[in-house]
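Changelog note: in this version the structure field was regenerated for every chain. One regenerated record is shown below for reference.
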Amino acid sequence: AMEERTPALKKCRSTEIRLDILLWMMKTCEEFAFKRDTYHNACYYFDMFLIINNQTLNDKSELELIGLTCIVISAKLEEIQLPRLKEYSELLSNKYNTKSIIEMEKKICSKLSWRLIIITKNIWLSWYICQWDLFIDTIDNIKEELLKLLNEEDILYYKKPNDNSYYNFRKISQLIDIMTLDYYSYNFEPRRLIAACFFVLICYNYKFKYNFMKKKFENNTPLSNLFFNLYKKFITQSFDYDFEDEKIQKAIKYTYNYI
């Protein structure tokens, strides 16, 4: 639904108010130590509400109230321990009292027709990083081939119980976080962006350079060739995507700009 309505978000980009509000929402979620899913849900509610409500963007204070209320709604669905409404209100220097937050909550939920359980990019990412690790460990002796060229700790995992996997997880998660700040990312189907992120992390981790004209790595080494073939097999098996597909190439090119 969002992809069909992106033109309505252009006014947000032109004034950069949307970016300011989403950055503020990100910081707010960090202050409350909320989960990443809470932030992503709140961003979706915020964008959809602006579109459906045809919200004007002149009053930044009101947009902060909308953003904060989206966080309140999302936290109720995702978090175990919740702040009091008064604590939320204090973040806006008490410009809006708890009653204002409650009234805005009713308005947002009504405008969204109470469709609050959604599949965000972050949820897709959580699923596919598990698929990536499983793919490396179980498919076509891939791990054995990688171990001929790399130490095990240098293999690109995301969910293994070690520091390198944790850092890889943080990198790809932060890549998705940053994309939410750009309205243009809604022009891509979420799963294609996730698929593109895996490619970009390969390039980043192993310093491979991708030639978009020739559709191949410039680094012609056994390791780059192995990862190139590995990636193509992975997105075919896990996403049912063809690497040569123009939509995948566009998603990779867009995501590649972030490294």
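Spot check on this record: The first helix runs from residue 10 to 15. The longest strand covers residues 210-211.
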